[in-house]
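Notebook entry, structure prediction.
Reason for the run: the old model in the group folder had no record of what sequence produced it. Starting over properly, with the input documented here first.
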Amino acid sequence: MDVLEASRITPEMVVEHGLSPEEYDRILKALGREPNLVELGIFSVMWSEHCSYKSSRVHLKKLPTEAPWVICGPGENAGVIDIGDGDAAIFKMESHNHPSYIEPYQGAATGVGGILRDVFTMGARPVANLNALRFGRPDHPKMRHLIAGVVAGIGGYGNCVGVPTVGGEVNFDQAYDGNILVNAMTVGVAKTDKIFYSAASGIGNPIVYVGSKTGRDGIHGATMASADFDENSDEKRPTVQVGDPFTEKLLIEACLELMATDAIVAIQDMGAAGLTSSSVEMASKGGAGIRLDMNKVPCRETGMTPYEMMLSESQERMLMVLKPGREPEAEAIFRKWELDFAVIGEVTDTGHMVLEFNGEVVCDIPLDPLADEAPLYDRPHLPLPKYKAWANVAPLKDPPKSSDVMADLLKLMASPNLASRRWIWEQYDQQVGGDTVQRPGGDAAVVRVHGSKKALAMTTDCTPRYCYADPYEGGKQAIAEAYRNLSAVGARPLAVTNCLNFGNPQRPEIMTQFVECLRGMGDACRALDFPIVSGNVSLYNESKATGGGSAILPTPAIGGVGLVDDWVKTATVGFKAEAEKILLIGADARAQPEVGQSLWLDVCHGRRDGPPPRVNLEAERKNSEFVRMLIAEGFATAVHDCSDGGTFVAVAEMALAGNIGARLVIDTFEDEVDSEVENHAASLFGETQGRFVVTERLDQHAVEKLARDNGVGCCFIGWTAGDTIAIDRADRSVIAEVPLAEIRAFNEGFFPKLMGGELTPEF
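New structure, fully documented this time:
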């Protein structure tokens, strides 16, 4: 019997493949007949949310993606920007959320492996990994297991493959109890004249499979990543891929060696949906067709069917189109690196994907319906005022006061979202490669471009509680904070990648979060000349499992990349010496401190009231440019941006990093003149945006004058001194004081206690 006339597809099979009845009708029209099981599987993964972006494409098109330095924007494996001297930075961020919840070690590890392949596929040598992690309540019964597995998976893969993990962020919130987020980012460096793309071309050109053999792991991974979790999520464990970082290292070296020749026409990694997505994307981007002989696909398990081969997400595999006659040369390279190599098909002019197995055609699908003509939905969403009414965030009528700001500081510094992440990043190799200039713990990581004075700065940022209260302002703030963090080390921000993590897009309130966050991101990127060049969308991050919440907080994680012309001229957060002036850049005596949605309000008062702080994009740009000038000219000895916890937490973090105390003069904080410290809590802990804390030498007297000349707000708030953090009045009388050692003990204690099994009652 012709395989195309195999057993009839039932409605139950359609549902199992994540397709709606309407989508199945579209398949029938596209084919002019019923699909067989292989074809149904291919449509299911290519039309999954994870691969097709069917709920997000209409809005992603509104984002700014171009600038004179952008070589390649969204649409390829990763974004590419020009960093001068014939060099390019290639980078992207992707999610591996659902797999990491089901099997945290392999889920996180293969997330790192996948994003590495996206970058070296384009010809770049990976130089740095980052991550953005979101976990649920620390005392949730599964959370210690999830944290330990995810961190070990990231470290295990990155350390073994030899790429330093240099930065990231880790946050906790009840909203992630049943659906953690694991977003991985890789940055690589290539030559601008050796960038590789994925569009297949050249009728008759050979299609080559390289890397590891295909197994049964990861089948339906893309479909699983496009659905909510439920109480049976553990049953999805077989859909989680298994990674081998040592094979990935061999694959990197083999690919880069072949890329040094001119044998490659196109190249694509096998990521989500494996051989299906890689072959479809290569052919559709090239406007060609493709024919594959499934009997030639290297398999590590016996009896694998075309359905399994096409949907497997086995790791460390690539697909290439080579120039005719170059197969022996390429094979010799991959055999030398002990990797599989097989010519499995050819480029055609049919515009179809044709698969053959045992002499029969088992799939014949026109490519347009699989790719460019995949379903596209403009999901219903609410006007922003109606969304805010749904979110029901309580107004902040009167900011609370504090009778003991030092107790508040200690509580904040010990809290899950501010506690030292040392326990995490010490498990990562940060120095492999020898080019890491600034390691984790600062505002942004800095990695030298090997053999030059240049360096790349990189950061990941997002404040989900802001995005929930006001998605538009939250989207702006995520971009602005990445811009600030890059500026704080002295880098010129150049471009953004992102990972857009949201709940179920079929809920109008969730779709509103998505649409408004993107609107805010787009406005910020345009105002800051900070285009978005790559990214990933992860929807259906919800859990109906027992003990889990519903939707996650809207989490548009931002990965920012900037350029430092001379890596020696960078700033760090730690205080450098005693008796240096501490200055607040971006101070505004006319503005009221903004404590709505602040971490202080949440941690110290148990409230998430009020709107998030407003983002003045003009001020963000002006203040950041001013700080970059201070760093370049050597006027600033330490720099830190103000974010969670406000100015007081920023000062405390600078003191801990430099092991030097600080004395703050409370009367100088903007327009606050009341001598009672409890009335200053809002100024100390408010999260007004666009601000930096900088230090300068006591005898310099330059920063305040330069700020006035440049129209930038600036005020003196204290000086570095001793081994305590103190709050003084203008007459030097002490209002409150706490030893730096005590702050350090609170700050360093959370993760060791949590992972050692000692949960503090408050968390």
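Summary: The longest strand covers residues 125-135.
The old model has been moved to the deprecated folder.
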